[in-house]
Amino acid sequence: MLADNLAAVLARIAAAAGRVGRDVAEVRLLAVSKTVSEERIRLAVQAGVCDLGENKVQELTRKRLALGEMDVSWALIGHLQTNKVRDAVRHADEFHALDRLKLAEALDRRLQGEGRGLDVFVQVNTSGEASKFGLAPEALTGFLDELVHYRSLRVRGLMTLAAFDPDPERSRGCFALLRRLRDEARQRDPDLIGPGELSMGMSGDFEVAVEEGATSVRVGQSIFGARALPDSHYWPDESGLTPPTGER
């Protein structure tokens, strides 16, 4: 069942890429394993998953330590508090939700102490919803200019969460905006945006994201199945915002 789900998701990614003349090899699948058992993660890896995404650093840390023998990459895709930076630096291979300079400074300081660098995506709030984290689009230019001071952070591109809507076409504008912001940043100074990747698209809208240029899609429930309980059960909201998930 899980292998069939994975195959179906990969086929849908390939079809979406084909519709717009893209090479499917340009699109990376991040299998979002939040709340998924270690046993099922092992099955996913056996089926071909090589990139895993976790929303909470505590869960990423626990699973990476338990599954350390697996040759996979772990991405932290959710909002990160500065007091959790140590574990993020030690256990995440990449971070998809960099959205403030205070966090960049904390990450850089810890990374220098560990003697390593970290691939990061800058999160942009393309939907304009107050319930979502991320930079306002107009703040991106200044933020990228400041990131050059944090040498341990390797900027790979931008990330966004589209507006939640049962119609995936409603996400298209958010994805198109992120692509435009990437293109504008690249034109102004390509060194500031790294390879200019776009982390966007989840179970409900990843095909639209691929059509709009996504290079990483974050898909969980379409692979592992629906979660038995809502996110708020696993992670009670501490901020007054809706749960800041990287995949729905």
Relevant terms:
248 residues, alpha/beta, TIM Barrel, 10 helices, 8 strands, 15% strand, globular
CATH fold assignment: TIM Barrel
Low-confidence spans: pLDDT under 50, at least 5 residues? 233-244
For the record, give the distance between the C-alpha atoms at the N and C termini, rounded to a whole number: 20 Å
- Order of SSEs, N→C? HEHEHEHEHEHEHEHEHH
Architecture, according to CATH?
Alpha-Beta Barrel
Q: CATH superfamily name? A: Alanine racemase
In the CATH scheme, the class would be Alpha Beta
Helix content: 25-40%
> What radius of gyration results from the CA coordinates?
17 Å
Main sheet properties: 8 strands, parallel
What number is the mean pLDDT? 92
Structural class: alpha/beta
Count of discrete alpha- or pi-helical segments spanning 4 or more residues:
10
Percent range for β-strand residues? 15-25%
Q: How would you sum up the global shape?
A: globular
How many domains, in number, for the residues? 1
Oligomer: single chain
